[in-house]
Structures are given as C-alpha cells and as structure tokens.
Amino acid sequence: MDLTFTPQERAFRAEVREFVARELPPDVRRKVQAGEELVKDDMARWQTALYKQGWVAPGWPQQYGGPGWSAVQRHIFYEELAYGWAPRLPPFGINMVAPVITEFGNDAQRARYLPKILSGEEWWCQGYSEPNSGSDLAALEMRAEPRAGGYLINGTKTWITYAQYADWIFVLARTNESPKKQEGISFILVDMKSPGVTVRPIVTIDGGREINEVHLENVEVPKENLVGEEGGGWTYAKFLLEHERTGTAGIATCKRMITQVRDLAAREGDTDPRIAERIARIEIELEAIAITELRTLAAESAGKRPGPESSILKVKGTEIQQAISELALDVVGPYADAQATRMYFNFRKTSIYAGSNEIQKNIIAKRILKL
Amino acid sequence: MDFTLSAEQLMIKDSVDRYAAGNHGADDWATFAGLGWLGIGAPEELGGFGGPTETMIVMEAFGRGLVTEPYVAHVVLAGGVLSVAGRNDLLEPLVEGKRRFAVAYEEPHARYEPAAVETNAKRDGSSYVLTGRKVRVLGAAPADTLIVSARTGDDVTLFAVPSGANGLKRTSYASEDGHDASAITFENVRVGAGDMIGDSGTGLALLEAALDRATAALCAEGVGLMSVMLNMTVEYTKQRRQFGVPIASFQALQHRMAEMFMELELARSMSYVAAMTLESETEADARKRGISAAKVQIARSGRFIGQSAIQLHGGIGMSEEYKVGHYFKRMTAVERLLGDTDYHLARYIAARDARPVRELVHS
User: What is the pLDDT of residue B360?
Assistant: First the structure.
C-alpha cells in the first residue's frame, strides 16, 4: 500500500500545471473563476489548445488519439485542469459517444466520427431522457421505424445540455415493440441539421441557458448511423452511464471550490467557529471521496471496468458538490453574492442528472448488496 | 499509488482473519505473542516486524471478530510510546508477552487533550513524587506497569509506575461497550529518575506520536465493526419477512443499506489514509491532520452504520442476546476513544492551519 506519487508522476503534474498556466486563454480562466456561464467559443478555444498538445481525450485508446496515460496520470491531469481554472469540456462527444463508438461501433464509424470529436470540429449532445421517461429510461417512447436504407424517427428528447451548440445527437429510440421494454431499443446517431429537428431552449432556476428540448419529427436517418446491433441499445446505454458516473464526481473541482470558500470566509474576516467546522467537515469527506475514487482508479488500472461501484462516486461526489454550494451561500450570507447564488441553484441538478441519486442507491442495493 | 497488500501482509491477514473468525477466548495474550502480533511496529532486533499497515490489517480483523483483548492499549499505544522513546529494554518483554504496560494520560477536565496535564511530578533528590488523577485508562487491569504523564515544571514527562506502587489506587468501571476502564489516583507515588520514559519534557511529543498510532488502529477496528454490522443487516433483512415478503424488498430499507455501504467505503478509504499517513509522514502537523481527519470520518460513518443496523433489525436489534448490539456498543466506544469528533475536528483545523499549503493526497 502506498498513497504517494512517483517522481515521474510528480514531474507529469508539473508539466500539466505549466501547460495550463501557459495555454488557457486568460479571459476563459477569469470566467471560470467568476463562475460565469461559458459559451461555445470559450470551450472550443481551450479544446483547440489541448488538441494541439494531444491531450483532449485522456481515456481514449492511443490508436484513436488518446495520450496513452495510466489511470493515475489521468487523475493528475484532471486535478491540474481544475486547479488551473480550466473549463470542463462537454463530455457528450469525448467521454460518452466516443467510448460507445469505439467499443460497439464499426471501423467506418470510428473513422468517420472520432477524429472530428477529438478536434472539436463536431459537437455532440445526448438524447436519453424524454418528457415521460426520466429515471425509467427504458420506458422511452421515441420511435425509429425501420425502412429501406434507414430509419424514420419521431419523438422528443429533453434536458439536452448544449443542444444549441451540437452538430450531432445520439439518441436511444425504439426500433421494435418488445414485451420486455429494455429490448427493442437502438443507439442511433442523428445529424442535428436533418430536416425535422428543432431545438427549444429551457431556462433553469439559476437563470442558465444550458439545456433544451429537442424534437424529432419524421427525421430520416441512414442505416449506417446505427451503432452496434439493432435492439442492442440498452447494453450500450448502460455502458455509457457507467462511464458517465465516474466522470461526474468532480473531486478536483470540489477541492478547488472548497478552497475558494475558505478564502472567501477569510477575506470577509469570518472567524465563526461554526463556519470553520463546516469547512473542515467538508474537506474531510472530500478526502474520503477522493481516496475512494483513487481506489476505483487503481482497480481500473488492474483491468476492471467501471462497475456499480461508480454509483458511490456519483452519489457522494454530487452530495459534496451541493454541500459546498450551500456552504458558499451561507458564507456570503447577507451579501447574497450572485455567483454563490447561481452556483447553489445550478448544483441542484447534480443529484438528478446521470441517473438520479435515488436510482444510484437502487443500483447499489441490487447489484452490490444483492437485495 | 497502490492499494494492494504484499505477500507477507496477506499472510498476516490470513492468520488474523482465521483467529478472529474462530472461538477466541478472554485471555489469548500468549497466543498473540506466539503469532508475533505483539511485535508489530517494534524493531526487528527485538523480534518485531511491520508497522501501521500491519496494525491496520490486525485491527480490522479484530473489529470483525469483536476481539476484546486490549491490543490497542498495550501493543499500539504503550508499545508506541516505548518504541518512539527507544526503550528497547521495556519493549523486549512486551513483545515476548512477559510484561504489559498501560498508558495513563487522560485527566477528568482534559476532554481527550493529552497536553492538559495537572498530575504533578515533584523532584525530590534523585526521585520524583507523583500526585494527581487519571481517567479512562485502557487495559489497566492486566497491566503490571503504567506509563503516566505528569507535569515537570512547564513540560510534560512520562514515567513508568508499577501497578502496585504505594499510593496508587485504581478503580475499575465499565465503558460504553462493557470493556474495563480505570480511574487511577496517585498520592505521593515515588518513582526513581530511571523510571522516566524518554527525556524530561518530551512526554507530550511521545504521547502524541503514540496516540496517533493508536487512533489509526481504532479507525481500522471501526471499519471491521462497520463491515460486520452492514453484512448482518443485509442478511437479516433478506430473511425477515413482513407483509408476506422479505423486508429487504422495501425501497426505504434498500436505500438505507445503500447509504450504509457508501459510508463504509468512505470509512475504509480514511482508514487507509490513517495508516499511510503514519507510514509516510515525518512532520507532526501533517501526521495529526491525516489521523484526525480519519477519526472524524470513522466516527461519522460508524455512528450512522451502527444506528441504522439497530433500526433495520427492529426489536431484535435491541436484544442483548443478539450480536449486532454488541458491535454497536463497541463502535460507540471506538467513536469516543482517544478523542471524539469535536476534539478531532478542532485538532484537524489547528494542524491544517499550521501547514496551510497541503495537497489532500500526499504528493
């Protein structure tokens, strides 16, 4: 047992830190520091800088443009990005659809889609939830009717982050009626420019304009946009969700946030021992989650795929994010600071998205505790 | 970054797991000596081996098996004082199981703080005269010698005092889990200058180093206790039927158990942090920070898992005959022993602020 980093890993950390300091556009850094909403151009410029360095997709196999890092290096990389106030790149292309295409797609799809995801030439969004199908994802109603040469898609997807920026959407749609609702679902890639696709923005309680409803009305999609087997979509969907959950813990971002709250309290001359104690409690739990994440990473390096254990990180990681945002709101107190307020309302989403925390507890109960 | 155990560590784990799972008695000290467990953390020339990781392995198994021998008090805490002080002459009989030491440091007003010492050691020629009162001395009953902290002027110094010394009075009482604790008064107890442990004035540093080892050991014991309480609860709710179905099929209970599982994993991570902090930290504030953080998490997880285990067992959980309550009582003691949450939170904050720039993971 050893929780220390090797000299090589420490050198790697220094290299990443230096890169972020040099290459992150100063106006983007300032926006992230101030907690302002980012627009596409902010994230795109940062992706271009990472792309030139070969660092866009730490988790990808090297043959498709991944840097070939160990799990520990990936961890260090994400930590340093957070500490350096880099924006998070949207995960929909890089961390969601790309692993599915890599694992279950064909060579033509890998050649067609992966390079443009990596370069940022094409942006993606995720079409999972529907107005009548949230936690009960398998009850989705979107139809992809098989017809000569492809599919005719009808239905509505909702809570779609960055649909307004996306060139492509990946959807789960029903390709046949099966008595078991998990069967008959397919994973299909849809060009957002297709006739019949409309995007309607949804304003969130924090005033944010990140999410949208996407309607597909008689949208024609060629057969080659199907990923894997027709009707095999549920398996790919679950694969993607497990990848998504490990990414949502956001431990490094939390460390940065709690430091910011501590600095804020110090700046306001706050010596209230109750605040000091709340900060300490959060720091300690954060350390416990961080080590739990490292244990998962270590298991992953030993060849284990992310499994139901990633649910722990999803629940605990999002709970702590929310706890920090609550604390920030309480620390600014009477000033009702705009950034703290926005963050608090915005972060309510974290325990809902990527499989609500209640669904995660179901997964732990059923798949780990075998209840 | 490595969370695996070495081949030797796996062998220790195997033997201590077998002991803890079997029928262990009330006086297995000779067995411990025979298996070498009394030498963990002691120098090799005395027959010792290993350190914090090995202690963690032993204590987690002791937690699972609800082993009641005063291993932490005698081997980790007293042994820790003696080994940090370099007292191989006393450590050797301890490792062999021939002598047993208990540490008397806590005082009624101190609320776990080892620096708050009023017991006085007055110099009288070549000897010292001790007067004062200690509480919650663990493992005092079977100990032949007490290691006592006392004020020597402005500083604190440790002394080895025979249990049967003139003027020493010990009163036994039961702590939360029924384990023996002792209150001890010293009335003009005379010891020689040679009975000093470490140099004059080094008592607090010695104590703090040893207390951190013992606290890490308790964290590991807590993880063992919690894992059993969770397993018992899962098994019980699967077989207990109400409304015609196993109660484990109810979502309210499933979510509670999922929360218990998550708390256990966080506690396990912090028990690793405690052991690894002792393995790698040479600086006192960094060491205190890591150990106190771990104790806060273990106390929090342990309380939640313990209370939930009793609740989900229902009436049977309240029954003294049923084992889950015994684990809960031991967990409740572990939560407070060597410092409760308030104490360790304050200690964490002070140690963190003494070294403001600090990576959460040791980099």
Answer: 40
